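Sequence in, structure out.
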Amino acid sequence: MTTSNDFAAHLAEDRRLVILRVLLESAAYTANEFLLHSMVERLGHVVSTDRIHTDLAWLHEQGLISVDDVAGVRIARLLARGEDAARGRATVPGVKRPRAG
């Protein structure tokens, strides 16, 4: 694996953790794709809407979130396994483990 691939993998892991943590802090553990995109960028990741869609699909495939389509807008909801990953109680390959404290 090259350094650029290592960096891209690290960014993806961190971005996925950010999404999980935003959902953890959201009312009813739920947020729409636009809010998630805004918060991911606010927390240091400049990404396309397509990248957010891809991350949501990946997190869904891993059983960390559910994703519903409401009037053409993706709504993500944190699942128990996603909460465990966001809090560092479970390790999920492809999601950065949060720092202690």
